[in-house]
Amino acid sequence: MLRPGFPGGKRLWNRQKETFRRGLYAAMSNGSRTHKAFLRRIAAAVYPPYWAGEAIYRQTGRGNMTNDDILQEFRDAEALLEGHFILSSGLRSSRYLQCARVLMNPARAARLAGALAASLPAEIRAEIDVVVSPAMGGIIIGHEMGRALAKDALFLERPDGVFGLRRGFRLEPGQKVLMVEDVVTTGLSSREAIAAVTREGGEVIAEASLVDRSNGSADLGVPFFPLIRLDVPTYEADQLPPELQAIPAVKPGSRKEAE
């Protein structure tokens, strides 16, 4: 492949990248499972732009995105909230990152997913067969992670209270799964989703999330790679500090007061 560095080189380089990408995708869609896995390893090793996001090609970790950069993405989307919030775990907090808002812009969602994909160790990226995420919060970031990693993205639902695959989704026996969530607080939802993947025949090899707000306490049973850790104290409802007691509690995304 030609590299940019001479007049017209960048245009030719972009054409070659696109030709290579299309060839890889065509081969992976038509080949056997073993053949697909082999091609994925080639792509992971020699062609990182479509494996970890074009915007962070030739960069390490999360690229050039610092914690401040990531938080600024939330601020720009008016998704960094302050007040008195009831988390999905039932715990209370004075700060909340509303991932639905930060992900509503496709370009921003792609940037964050690209940075998250790049934060995964290369050996884990090379093993991933499919991305799975729990509905509802994990669907958008799971889909964008599938795009960044060039993998299919499925989601779990629990209409009866137990996670499972629906809508024709299925896992092949032994498929290596990356679990993707928007936010991890206690890790309970993640563990339930991981257990569901096991029941469906897959194997979760790691979990990734946009935000870890567990203060490092979440034990998922698999390697965990959050894009950012938000170390904000959480409280039981009967153990609130005075400043939170003075503010009506709300569930993020709802205008209705919880109490």
Range of strand content = 15-25%
| Secondary structure: helix percent | 25-40%
- End-to-end CA span: 62 Å
Tell me the number of structural domains: 1
Going across the biggest sheet, name each strand in turn: 5-4-3-6-7-8
Overall shape? globular
**Number of helical regions:** 10
CATH topology: Rossmann fold
Write down the Rg: 20 Å
Mean pLDDT score: 79
Order of helices and strands: HHHHEEHHHEHEEEHEEEH
Instruction: Please provide the count of β strands.
Output: 9
Structural class: alpha/beta
Largest sheet: 6 strands, mixed
CATH architecture: 3-Layer(aba) Sandwich
Structural features, described:
A hairpin with a 6-residue loop joins strand 4 (152-157) and strand 5 (164-165). Residues 1-10, 46-61 and 254-259 have low confidence and may be disordered. The chain is globular, with a radius of gyration of 20 Å. With 259 residues, the protein is an alpha/beta fold. The protein has helices at residues 9-30, 33-46, 49-52, 67-76, 99-102, 106-118, 122-127, 138-149, 188-199, 242-245; strands at residues 80-86, 92-97, 130-134, 152-157, 164-165, 176-184, 203-212, 224-229, 234-235. It has a six-stranded mixed sheet, with helices on both faces. Strands 1-2-9 form a three-stranded antiparallel sheet. It has one domain (50-245): Rossmann fold (3-Layer(aba) Sandwich), CATH 3.40.50.
